[in-house]
Structure formats: structure tokens, C-alpha cells
Amino acid sequence: MSTPTDDGVQQAVEGELALLRPQVRSSAQAGELLHPDFVEFGSSGRVWTRPEIVAAMAGELSLAGVELVVSGMGGTRLADDVVHLTYRTERDGVAVGRSSVWRRTGDRWQIWFHQGTPLSPTAAAAPAEG
């Protein structure tokens, strides 16, 4: 896994980090960061479409006081207009491995796919591979 060394990877990382902030998730900016064909396989096992996730994020401002720890974020450019990010999050002792695919649409980067996978306590404690 590479670090954000080019503009596309850096923009995808910035967009991903923005989407993790409750203030962004509950705003119109979240919708601008989501590709029209966005799909998420959530850590709960639920499959989310773009309209469903936009509606769900709009009601999440209550998470503003809950600390989300992000670690090991890195990305790789898969093509001129595609970036793959991987990282881990932890909230309230629950660790999740995350993977996102970002696509450049015109002059901006948008998240096209996201998957969250719950990590076992031993996997969560292991150092990130890279």
C-alpha cells in the first residue's frame, strides 16, 4: 500500500476523511462526494445504495461526540481515474477494516464503492500490512 503521493490519491484520502466527520456526513457536501452509482457493503452486512446512505448520514449528527479513531490509511492508484483506499476505524472498542474505491468524475473525485468488515479483537490489534 502506498502513501498519498499523487494528487488523485491525496484527494481521495481527503474526501474519505471528510466523509468520516459527522458535520460533513450530515451536510449536502456528503452527497457531492458520493458517485451517482455509489454502493456500500456495510460492516453490519447491509448493502446500501446512494439514496439510502445519504438519508442515513443526514441523521448522524448525534455521532459528533463519539470518537472515531482512523489508522493505517493508504491508497493506490489503480488507473488514471481510479484510486483504492484501505484503512481501519475504531469506535467504542469496535474495529472495522475499510476499503473504498474512488473515481474521478470530470474534475472531482467521488467515492464509488465502500466496504466495512468487522475485525476480530486479535486482527484489530495486529499492525496494518503494507
Automatic annotation (TrEMBL):
<dbReference type="Pfam" id="PF14534">
    <property type="entry name" value="DUF4440"/>
</dbReference>
<feature type="domain" description="DUF4440">
    <location>
        <begin position="24"/>
        <end position="111"/>
    </location>
</feature>
<dbReference type="InterPro" id="IPR032710">
    <property type="entry name" value="NTF2-like_dom_sf"/>
</dbReference>
<protein>
    <submittedName>
        <fullName>Nuclear transport factor 2 family protein</fullName>
    </submittedName>
</protein>
<dbReference type="InterPro" id="IPR027843">
    <property type="entry name" value="DUF4440"/>
</dbReference>
